[in-house]
Amino acid sequence: MSYMALYRKFRPDTLADVKGQEHIVTTLKNQLAAGRIGHAYLFTGTRGTGKTTVAKILARAVNCENPTAEGPCGECRICRAIAAGASMNVIEIDAASNNGVDNIREIVEEVSYSPAEGKYKVYIIDEVHMLSAGAFNALLKTLEEPPSYVIFILATTEVHKLPITILSRCQRYDFKRIPIDTITARMQELTAQESVQVEDKALRYIAKTADGSMRDALSLLDQCIAFHLGRELTYDKVLDVLGAVDTEVFSRLLRHVLDRDVTGCVELLEEIVMQGRELTQFVTDFTWYLRNLMLVQASDNLEDVIDMSSDNLKRLKEESAMADMDGIIRFIRIFSDLSGQIRQSAQKRILVEIALIKLCRPQMEVDQGAVLDRIRQVEDKLEKGVIVSPASGVPGQTSDGAGAGAGGGNRQKPKLPKAIPEDVKQIVSKWPAVVGSAENPMRVYLKSARLSLGGDNRLMVVFADGMASDYFTKQPEHKAQLEALLSDFSGKEIEVNIQTVSEIREFEDNYVDISQVIQMEIEEEEE
Asked: Which residues in the chain come in under a pLDDT of 50?
Protein backbone atom coordinates (compact mmCIF):
# COMPACT_ATOMS: atom_id res chain seq x y z
CA MET A 1 0.00 0.00 0.00
CA SER A 2 1.36 3.44 -0.89
CA TYR A 3 2.35 5.82 1.91
CA MET A 4 -0.11 8.60 2.81
CA ALA A 5 1.18 11.93 4.09
CA LEU A 6 0.36 12.72 7.73
CA TYR A 7 -1.75 15.77 6.92
CA ARG A 8 -3.95 13.61 4.64
CA LYS A 9 -4.00 10.57 6.90
CA PHE A 10 -5.10 12.58 9.94
CA ARG A 11 -7.41 15.07 8.23
CA PRO A 12 -10.33 15.72 10.66
CA ASP A 13 -13.52 13.76 9.95
CA THR A 14 -15.82 15.66 12.34
CA LEU A 15 -16.05 19.20 13.65
CA ALA A 16 -14.77 17.98 17.03
CA ASP A 17 -11.46 17.02 15.39
CA VAL A 18 -10.87 20.55 14.01
CA LYS A 19 -8.24 22.29 16.14
CA GLY A 20 -7.76 25.98 16.79
CA GLN A 21 -11.00 27.21 15.14
CA GLU A 22 -13.47 26.87 18.02
CA HIS A 23 -15.35 30.05 17.09
CA ILE A 24 -16.20 28.60 13.66
CA VAL A 25 -16.87 25.05 14.87
CA THR A 26 -19.35 26.27 17.51
CA THR A 27 -21.26 28.43 15.01
CA LEU A 28 -21.55 25.64 12.44
CA LYS A 29 -22.66 23.12 15.09
CA ASN A 30 -25.44 25.47 16.18
CA GLN A 31 -26.54 26.02 12.58
CA LEU A 32 -26.67 22.26 11.91
CA ALA A 33 -28.56 21.58 15.13
CA ALA A 34 -31.14 24.29 14.38
CA GLY A 35 -31.41 23.48 10.67
CA ARG A 36 -30.41 27.05 9.79
CA ILE A 37 -28.10 26.22 6.91
CA GLY A 38 -26.86 29.16 4.85
CA HIS A 39 -26.80 29.14 1.07
CA ALA A 40 -23.33 30.74 0.67
CA TYR A 41 -20.29 30.58 2.97
CA LEU A 42 -16.94 32.32 2.64
CA PHE A 43 -14.00 30.68 4.44
CA THR A 44 -10.94 32.91 4.57
CA GLY A 45 -7.59 32.70 6.34
CA THR A 46 -3.96 31.77 5.89
CA ARG A 47 -2.91 28.46 4.34
CA GLY A 48 -3.29 25.19 6.24
CA THR A 49 -5.73 26.42 8.88
CA GLY A 50 -8.63 24.11 7.95
CA LYS A 51 -10.74 25.95 5.37
CA THR A 52 -11.11 23.08 2.87
CA THR A 53 -11.32 20.50 5.67
CA VAL A 54 -14.24 22.28 7.37
CA ALA A 55 -15.91 22.78 3.96
CA LYS A 56 -15.80 19.00 3.33
CA ILE A 57 -17.08 18.20 6.83
CA LEU A 58 -19.96 20.65 6.35
CA ALA A 59 -20.75 19.13 2.93
CA ARG A 60 -20.99 15.66 4.51
CA ALA A 61 -22.93 16.91 7.54
CA VAL A 62 -25.75 18.49 5.52
CA ASN A 63 -26.19 15.28 3.50
CA CYS A 64 -25.57 12.73 6.26
CA GLU A 65 -28.36 10.21 6.88
CA ASN A 66 -27.53 9.98 10.61
CA PRO A 67 -25.97 13.32 11.63
CA THR A 68 -24.56 13.75 15.16
CA ALA A 69 -23.88 16.79 17.32
CA GLU A 70 -20.31 16.79 15.96
CA GLY A 71 -21.35 16.68 12.29
CA PRO A 72 -21.45 13.68 9.92
CA CYS A 73 -21.62 10.12 11.22
CA GLY A 74 -19.00 8.93 8.75
CA GLU A 75 -20.67 5.51 8.48
CA CYS A 76 -23.70 6.00 6.23
CA ARG A 77 -23.63 5.37 2.50
CA ILE A 78 -23.59 9.07 1.58
CA CYS A 79 -20.81 9.91 4.05
CA ARG A 80 -18.62 7.14 2.66
CA ALA A 81 -19.32 8.16 -0.94
CA ILE A 82 -18.43 11.81 -0.27
CA ALA A 83 -15.28 10.81 1.65
CA ALA A 84 -14.22 8.63 -1.29
CA GLY A 85 -14.88 11.46 -3.78
CA ALA A 86 -17.55 9.36 -5.54
CA SER A 87 -20.60 11.50 -4.74
CA MET A 88 -22.20 13.75 -7.32
CA ASN A 89 -23.55 15.92 -4.49
CA VAL A 90 -20.20 17.53 -3.60
CA ILE A 91 -18.36 19.28 -6.41
CA GLU A 92 -14.87 20.65 -5.66
CA ILE A 93 -13.51 23.28 -8.05
CA ASP A 94 -10.01 24.75 -8.11
CA ALA A 95 -10.52 28.36 -9.19
CA ALA A 96 -6.81 28.73 -9.96
CA SER A 97 -7.18 26.48 -13.02
CA ASN A 98 -10.92 26.94 -13.69
CA ASN A 99 -11.21 30.69 -13.49
CA GLY A 100 -12.98 31.62 -16.72
CA VAL A 101 -16.55 32.64 -17.52
CA ASP A 102 -17.25 29.31 -19.26
CA ASN A 103 -16.26 27.32 -16.16
CA ILE A 104 -18.71 29.26 -14.01
CA ARG A 105 -21.48 29.06 -16.63
CA GLU A 106 -21.21 25.26 -16.47
CA ILE A 107 -21.83 25.46 -12.72
CA VAL A 108 -24.79 27.79 -13.21
CA GLU A 109 -26.36 25.31 -15.68
CA GLU A 110 -25.76 22.33 -13.36
CA VAL A 111 -27.37 24.14 -10.43
CA SER A 112 -30.80 23.76 -12.00
CA TYR A 113 -30.65 19.97 -11.51
CA SER A 114 -31.61 18.72 -8.05
CA PRO A 115 -29.39 16.15 -6.28
CA ALA A 116 -29.89 12.48 -7.20
CA GLU A 117 -29.49 11.51 -3.53
CA GLY A 118 -29.22 13.41 -0.28
CA LYS A 119 -30.55 16.88 0.49
CA TYR A 120 -27.97 19.29 -0.91
CA LYS A 121 -25.58 19.87 -3.79
CA VAL A 122 -22.51 21.55 -2.33
CA TYR A 123 -20.06 23.48 -4.52
CA ILE A 124 -16.66 24.05 -2.88
CA ILE A 125 -14.70 26.66 -4.87
CA ASP A 126 -11.10 26.81 -3.60
CA GLU A 127 -8.87 29.88 -4.10
CA VAL A 128 -11.95 31.74 -5.31
CA HIS A 129 -10.02 35.03 -5.55
CA MET A 130 -8.43 33.65 -8.76
CA LEU A 131 -11.71 33.92 -10.69
CA SER A 132 -11.77 36.52 -13.45
CA ALA A 133 -14.05 39.57 -13.28
CA GLY A 134 -16.34 38.00 -15.87
CA ALA A 135 -16.52 34.76 -13.89
CA PHE A 136 -17.49 36.65 -10.73
CA ASN A 137 -20.26 38.41 -12.65
CA ALA A 138 -21.51 35.09 -14.03
CA LEU A 139 -21.60 33.65 -10.49
CA LEU A 140 -23.24 36.66 -8.88
CA LYS A 141 -26.95 36.05 -9.57
CA THR A 142 -26.80 32.33 -8.75
CA LEU A 143 -24.87 33.06 -5.55
CA GLU A 144 -27.54 35.53 -4.46
CA GLU A 145 -30.58 33.33 -5.14
CA PRO A 146 -29.56 29.67 -5.57
CA PRO A 147 -32.12 26.87 -5.47
CA SER A 148 -32.98 25.66 -1.95
CA TYR A 149 -30.93 22.49 -2.43
CA VAL A 150 -27.63 24.28 -3.36
CA ILE A 151 -24.90 25.48 -1.00
CA PHE A 152 -21.81 27.39 -2.12
CA ILE A 153 -18.65 27.31 0.01
CA LEU A 154 -15.98 29.72 -1.22
CA ALA A 155 -12.46 29.43 0.20
CA THR A 156 -9.61 31.92 -0.21
CA THR A 157 -6.35 33.06 1.33
CA GLU A 158 -6.69 36.55 -0.17
CA VAL A 159 -10.15 37.82 0.71
CA HIS A 160 -9.20 41.43 -0.17
CA LYS A 161 -9.23 40.43 -3.86
CA LEU A 162 -12.91 39.50 -3.82
CA PRO A 163 -15.50 41.98 -5.15
CA ILE A 164 -17.71 43.53 -2.49
CA THR A 165 -20.74 42.18 -4.38
CA ILE A 166 -19.53 38.62 -3.64
CA LEU A 167 -18.62 39.37 -0.01
CA SER A 168 -22.05 40.83 0.73
CA ARG A 169 -23.82 37.61 -0.38
CA CYS A 170 -21.86 35.22 1.86
CA GLN A 171 -21.59 34.33 5.52
CA ARG A 172 -17.94 35.08 6.24
CA TYR A 173 -15.82 32.92 8.56
CA ASP A 174 -12.24 34.00 9.32
CA PHE A 175 -9.90 31.10 10.12
CA LYS A 176 -7.22 32.14 12.60
CA ARG A 177 -3.60 31.07 12.69
CA ILE A 178 -3.45 28.07 14.98
CA PRO A 179 -1.52 28.63 18.26
CA ILE A 180 1.83 26.88 18.77
CA ASP A 181 0.50 24.98 21.81
CA THR A 182 -2.46 23.64 19.81
CA ILE A 183 -0.27 22.48 16.92
CA THR A 184 2.22 20.89 19.34
CA ALA A 185 -0.53 19.00 21.19
CA ARG A 186 -1.95 17.70 17.90
CA MET A 187 1.47 16.48 16.76
CA GLN A 188 1.99 14.75 20.12
CA GLU A 189 -1.26 12.82 19.54
CA LEU A 190 -0.26 11.81 16.02
CA THR A 191 3.30 10.75 16.88
CA ALA A 192 1.91 8.61 19.73
CA GLN A 193 -0.45 6.90 17.27
CA GLU A 194 2.38 6.43 14.78
CA SER A 195 4.72 5.12 17.54
CA VAL A 196 7.33 7.78 16.77
CA GLN A 197 9.65 8.89 19.58
CA VAL A 198 10.09 12.65 19.52
CA GLU A 199 11.22 15.37 21.90
CA ASP A 200 8.62 17.97 22.90
CA LYS A 201 11.18 20.69 22.20
CA ALA A 202 11.49 19.40 18.62
CA LEU A 203 7.72 19.50 18.14
CA ARG A 204 7.50 23.03 19.51
CA TYR A 205 10.14 24.21 17.04
CA ILE A 206 8.25 22.59 14.15
CA ALA A 207 5.03 24.22 15.38
CA LYS A 208 6.68 27.64 15.54
CA THR A 209 8.20 27.23 12.06
CA ALA A 210 4.76 26.33 10.65
CA ASP A 211 3.59 29.88 11.45
CA GLY A 212 0.04 28.97 12.44
CA SER A 213 -0.54 26.35 9.72
CA MET A 214 -1.43 22.84 10.88
CA ARG A 215 -0.86 21.41 7.40
CA ASP A 216 2.63 22.95 7.18
CA ALA A 217 3.47 21.59 10.64
CA LEU A 218 2.44 18.04 9.68
CA SER A 219 4.35 18.26 6.39
CA LEU A 220 7.50 19.38 8.24
CA LEU A 221 7.01 16.62 10.82
CA ASP A 222 6.64 14.09 8.00
CA GLN A 223 9.89 15.34 6.46
CA CYS A 224 11.80 15.07 9.75
CA ILE A 225 10.46 11.58 10.53
CA ALA A 226 11.41 10.33 7.07
CA PHE A 227 14.95 11.68 7.39
CA HIS A 228 15.53 10.00 10.76
CA LEU A 229 13.29 6.98 10.27
CA GLY A 230 13.38 4.53 13.16
CA ARG A 231 15.32 6.89 15.47
CA GLU A 232 14.17 9.32 18.13
CA LEU A 233 13.47 12.74 16.66
CA THR A 234 15.44 15.24 18.73
CA TYR A 235 15.56 19.03 18.62
CA ASP A 236 19.04 18.99 17.06
CA LYS A 237 17.93 16.55 14.36
CA VAL A 238 14.98 18.79 13.48
CA LEU A 239 17.36 21.73 13.16
CA ASP A 240 19.55 19.66 10.84
CA VAL A 241 16.65 18.61 8.59
CA LEU A 242 15.14 22.08 8.34
CA GLY A 243 18.52 23.79 7.91
CA ALA A 244 17.83 25.89 10.98
CA VAL A 245 20.11 27.45 13.60
CA ASP A 246 20.05 26.95 17.36
CA THR A 247 19.01 29.89 19.56
CA GLU A 248 22.47 29.99 21.16
CA VAL A 249 23.94 30.97 17.78
CA PHE A 250 21.56 33.93 17.55
CA SER A 251 22.70 35.06 20.98
CA ARG A 252 26.34 34.97 19.87
CA LEU A 253 25.50 36.85 16.68
CA LEU A 254 23.55 39.54 18.53
CA ARG A 255 26.44 40.14 20.93
CA HIS A 256 28.82 40.55 17.96
CA VAL A 257 26.41 43.11 16.50
CA LEU A 258 26.12 45.03 19.78
CA ASP A 259 29.95 45.10 19.95
CA ARG A 260 30.04 46.39 16.32
CA ASP A 261 32.24 43.39 15.53
CA VAL A 262 31.88 42.93 11.77
CA THR A 263 34.61 40.28 11.64
CA GLY A 264 32.90 38.23 14.35
CA CYS A 265 29.55 38.42 12.51
CA VAL A 266 31.03 37.34 9.17
CA GLU A 267 33.00 34.48 10.77
CA LEU A 268 29.87 33.24 12.56
CA LEU A 269 27.93 33.40 9.29
CA GLU A 270 30.72 31.32 7.72
CA GLU A 271 30.15 28.67 10.42
CA ILE A 272 26.42 28.67 9.71
CA VAL A 273 26.95 28.29 5.97
CA MET A 274 29.52 25.52 6.40
CA GLN A 275 27.04 23.61 8.59
CA GLY A 276 24.67 23.61 5.61
CA ARG A 277 22.05 25.82 7.24
CA GLU A 278 19.36 27.40 5.07
CA LEU A 279 19.95 31.17 5.01
CA THR A 280 16.32 32.06 4.29
CA GLN A 281 15.28 30.18 7.44
CA PHE A 282 18.18 31.78 9.33
CA VAL A 283 16.97 35.28 8.44
CA THR A 284 13.39 34.44 9.49
CA ASP A 285 14.50 32.93 12.79
CA PHE A 286 16.92 35.75 13.67
CA THR A 287 14.17 38.30 12.97
CA TRP A 288 11.97 36.32 15.37
CA TYR A 289 14.79 36.36 17.95
CA LEU A 290 15.04 40.15 17.63
CA ARG A 291 11.25 40.37 18.03
CA ASN A 292 11.52 38.44 21.30
CA LEU A 293 14.32 40.77 22.42
CA MET A 294 12.08 43.77 21.72
CA LEU A 295 9.20 42.28 23.73
CA VAL A 296 11.44 41.44 26.69
CA GLN A 297 12.65 45.04 26.80
CA ALA A 298 9.14 46.45 26.36
CA SER A 299 7.64 44.60 29.33
CA ASP A 300 8.55 42.26 32.18
CA ASN A 301 5.33 40.28 31.86
CA LEU A 302 5.51 38.83 28.35
CA GLU A 303 7.04 35.43 29.13
CA ASP A 304 3.86 33.69 27.95
CA VAL A 305 4.06 35.39 24.55
CA ILE A 306 7.72 34.46 24.07
CA ASP A 307 8.10 30.78 23.29
CA MET A 308 11.47 30.07 24.93
CA SER A 309 13.06 27.90 27.57
CA SER A 310 13.88 29.51 30.93
CA ASP A 311 17.64 29.44 30.15
CA ASN A 312 17.20 31.15 26.80
CA LEU A 313 14.82 33.69 28.32
CA LYS A 314 17.37 34.53 31.02
CA ARG A 315 20.03 35.10 28.34
CA LEU A 316 17.61 37.23 26.33
CA LYS A 317 16.93 39.45 29.37
CA GLU A 318 20.69 39.99 29.76
CA GLU A 319 20.92 41.05 26.14
CA SER A 320 17.91 43.37 26.43
CA ALA A 321 19.88 45.35 29.03
CA MET A 322 22.77 45.66 26.54
CA ALA A 323 20.64 47.08 23.69
CA ASP A 324 18.24 50.00 23.34
CA MET A 325 14.76 49.90 21.82
CA ASP A 326 15.53 52.17 18.84
CA GLY A 327 18.51 50.02 17.91
CA ILE A 328 16.52 46.78 18.17
CA ILE A 329 13.76 48.20 15.96
CA ARG A 330 16.41 49.24 13.40
CA PHE A 331 17.82 45.69 13.45
CA ILE A 332 14.32 44.24 12.90
CA ARG A 333 13.65 46.63 10.02
CA ILE A 334 16.90 45.69 8.25
CA PHE A 335 16.26 41.94 8.60
CA SER A 336 12.58 42.27 7.67
CA ASP A 337 13.64 44.01 4.46
CA LEU A 338 16.21 41.27 3.92
CA SER A 339 13.63 38.49 4.32
CA GLY A 340 11.67 39.99 1.43
CA GLN A 341 14.75 40.13 -0.83
CA ILE A 342 16.50 36.87 -0.03
CA ARG A 343 13.85 34.37 -1.19
CA GLN A 344 14.35 35.15 -4.87
CA SER A 345 18.07 35.94 -4.72
CA ALA A 346 20.84 33.73 -6.09
CA GLN A 347 23.37 35.50 -3.82
CA LYS A 348 21.79 34.89 -0.42
CA ARG A 349 25.03 34.93 1.52
CA ILE A 350 26.13 38.30 0.15
CA LEU A 351 22.77 39.85 1.06
CA VAL A 352 23.05 38.52 4.62
CA GLU A 353 26.62 39.84 4.92
CA ILE A 354 25.50 43.30 3.76
CA ALA A 355 22.68 43.26 6.33
CA LEU A 356 25.06 42.28 9.14
CA ILE A 357 27.47 45.07 8.20
CA LYS A 358 24.54 47.51 8.24
CA LEU A 359 23.67 46.35 11.76
CA CYS A 360 27.24 47.01 12.89
CA ARG A 361 27.77 50.21 10.89
CA PRO A 362 24.79 52.57 11.20
CA GLN A 363 26.81 55.22 9.30
CA MET A 364 25.93 53.29 6.13
CA GLU A 365 22.34 54.48 6.45
CA VAL A 366 20.75 57.91 6.48
CA ASP A 367 17.41 57.27 8.19
CA GLN A 368 16.58 58.61 11.65
CA GLY A 369 17.09 55.29 13.43
CA ALA A 370 20.61 54.91 12.03
CA VAL A 371 21.51 58.52 12.94
CA LEU A 372 20.35 57.93 16.52
CA ASP A 373 22.42 54.76 16.61
CA ARG A 374 25.50 56.67 15.44
CA ILE A 375 24.94 59.30 18.13
CA ARG A 376 24.71 56.58 20.77
CA GLN A 377 27.98 55.06 19.52
CA VAL A 378 29.74 58.41 19.98
CA GLU A 379 28.18 58.86 23.43
CA ASP A 380 29.32 55.38 24.48
CA LYS A 381 32.87 56.13 23.36
CA LEU A 382 32.91 59.44 25.22
CA GLU A 383 31.60 57.80 28.37
CA LYS A 384 34.37 55.20 28.16
CA GLY A 385 36.99 57.90 27.56
CA VAL A 386 37.60 56.85 23.97
CA ILE A 387 38.77 59.69 21.72
CA VAL A 388 36.46 60.22 18.77
CA SER A 389 38.76 60.56 15.77
CA PRO A 390 37.62 62.45 12.67
CA ALA A 391 36.74 60.89 9.37
CA SER A 392 39.23 62.06 6.75
CA GLY A 393 38.36 65.46 5.33
CA VAL A 394 34.80 65.52 6.68
CA PRO A 395 33.88 68.78 8.38
CA GLY A 396 31.77 68.77 11.48
CA GLN A 397 33.96 66.34 13.44
CA THR A 398 36.82 66.94 15.86
CA SER A 399 40.03 67.90 14.13
CA ASP A 400 42.20 66.34 16.86
CA GLY A 401 41.84 64.09 19.87
CA ALA A 402 42.49 66.87 22.40
CA GLY A 403 39.58 68.89 21.15
CA ALA A 404 37.21 66.00 21.59
CA GLY A 405 38.35 65.13 25.08
CA ALA A 406 38.96 68.55 26.58
CA GLY A 407 35.93 70.13 25.06
CA GLY A 408 33.60 67.59 26.61
CA GLY A 409 32.64 66.30 23.17
CA ASN A 410 32.23 69.73 21.49
CA ARG A 411 33.29 69.64 17.84
CA GLN A 412 35.76 72.16 16.46
CA LYS A 413 34.88 74.13 13.37
CA PRO A 414 37.35 73.22 10.58
CA LYS A 415 39.80 75.87 9.43
CA LEU A 416 39.48 77.55 6.06
CA PRO A 417 41.63 75.72 3.52
CA LYS A 418 44.54 77.69 2.04
CA ALA A 419 43.39 77.03 -1.51
CA ILE A 420 39.93 76.46 -2.95
CA PRO A 421 39.84 74.77 -6.38
CA GLU A 422 38.99 77.10 -9.26
CA ASP A 423 36.06 74.98 -10.47
CA VAL A 424 34.50 75.11 -6.97
CA LYS A 425 35.02 78.91 -6.85
CA GLN A 426 33.36 79.22 -10.24
CA ILE A 427 30.33 77.17 -9.14
CA VAL A 428 29.92 79.10 -5.88
CA SER A 429 30.20 82.48 -7.57
CA LYS A 430 27.48 81.46 -10.03
CA TRP A 431 25.30 79.65 -7.46
CA PRO A 432 22.21 81.89 -7.90
CA ALA A 433 22.31 81.20 -11.66
CA VAL A 434 22.79 77.47 -10.99
CA VAL A 435 19.73 77.41 -8.73
CA GLY A 436 17.68 79.42 -11.24
CA SER A 437 18.44 77.02 -14.09
CA ALA A 438 17.37 73.91 -12.16
CA GLU A 439 13.89 72.49 -12.63
CA ASN A 440 11.43 72.07 -9.79
CA PRO A 441 11.45 70.54 -7.27
CA MET A 442 15.27 70.59 -7.34
CA ARG A 443 15.25 74.39 -7.70
CA VAL A 444 13.19 74.79 -4.50
CA TYR A 445 15.45 72.45 -2.55
CA LEU A 446 18.69 74.08 -3.77
CA LYS A 447 17.53 77.47 -2.49
CA SER A 448 17.87 76.17 1.07
CA ALA A 449 21.32 74.61 0.52
CA ARG A 450 24.51 75.88 2.15
CA LEU A 451 27.94 75.45 0.52
CA SER A 452 31.16 74.23 2.09
CA LEU A 453 34.30 72.26 1.15
CA GLY A 454 34.49 68.51 1.71
CA GLY A 455 37.15 65.83 1.48
CA ASP A 456 39.60 66.09 -1.44
CA ASN A 457 38.55 69.75 -1.81
CA ARG A 458 35.23 68.76 -3.35
CA LEU A 459 32.19 71.00 -3.25
CA MET A 460 29.98 70.12 -0.28
CA VAL A 461 26.25 70.91 -0.45
CA VAL A 462 24.64 70.85 2.99
CA PHE A 463 20.90 70.51 3.68
CA ALA A 464 18.88 70.61 6.86
CA ASP A 465 17.31 67.23 7.64
CA GLY A 466 14.00 66.91 5.80
CA MET A 467 12.54 66.69 2.30
CA ALA A 468 15.45 68.51 0.62
CA SER A 469 18.01 66.19 2.20
CA ASP A 470 15.97 63.07 1.37
CA TYR A 471 15.60 64.22 -2.25
CA PHE A 472 19.36 63.96 -2.84
CA THR A 473 20.49 61.29 -0.34
CA LYS A 474 17.75 58.69 -0.82
CA GLN A 475 17.53 59.00 -4.60
CA PRO A 476 21.04 58.90 -6.12
CA GLU A 477 19.78 59.89 -9.59
CA HIS A 478 18.94 63.37 -8.24
CA LYS A 479 22.51 63.83 -7.00
CA ALA A 480 23.74 62.77 -10.44
CA GLN A 481 21.43 65.36 -12.06
CA LEU A 482 22.86 68.07 -9.82
CA GLU A 483 26.44 67.08 -10.71
CA ALA A 484 25.55 67.22 -14.43
CA LEU A 485 24.05 70.69 -13.94
CA LEU A 486 27.19 71.94 -12.18
CA SER A 487 29.42 70.41 -14.85
CA ASP A 488 27.55 72.44 -17.50
CA PHE A 489 28.34 75.65 -15.62
CA SER A 490 32.01 74.90 -14.90
CA GLY A 491 32.93 73.03 -18.08
CA LYS A 492 34.56 70.36 -15.88
CA GLU A 493 33.38 67.15 -14.29
CA ILE A 494 32.10 68.06 -10.83
CA GLU A 495 31.67 65.58 -7.98
CA VAL A 496 29.47 66.74 -5.09
CA ASN A 497 29.53 65.70 -1.45
CA ILE A 498 25.99 65.84 0.02
CA GLN A 499 25.76 66.32 3.81
CA THR A 500 22.80 66.55 6.19
CA VAL A 501 22.57 68.55 9.44
CA SER A 502 19.75 68.50 11.96
CA GLU A 503 19.31 72.27 11.62
CA ILE A 504 21.06 75.19 9.89
CA ARG A 505 22.63 76.34 13.15
CA GLU A 506 24.64 73.12 13.14
CA PHE A 507 26.05 74.15 9.75
CA GLU A 508 27.08 77.56 11.09
CA ASP A 509 28.77 76.01 14.12
CA ASN A 510 30.63 73.24 12.34
CA TYR A 511 31.18 74.13 8.67
CA VAL A 512 32.92 76.93 6.75
CA ASP A 513 30.45 78.80 4.54
CA ILE A 514 32.63 79.19 1.44
CA SER A 515 29.99 81.23 -0.39
CA GLN A 516 30.76 84.15 1.93
CA VAL A 517 34.52 83.69 1.55
CA ILE A 518 34.40 83.61 -2.25
CA GLN A 519 32.15 86.63 -2.41
CA MET A 520 34.70 88.53 -0.30
CA GLU A 521 37.51 87.53 -2.62
CA ILE A 522 35.52 88.67 -5.63
CA GLU A 523 34.76 92.01 -3.99
CA GLU A 524 38.48 92.55 -3.16
CA GLU A 525 39.46 91.84 -6.76
CA GLU A 526 36.91 94.39 -8.00
CA GLU A 527 38.35 97.08 -5.69
From this structure: 1, 386-410, 520-527
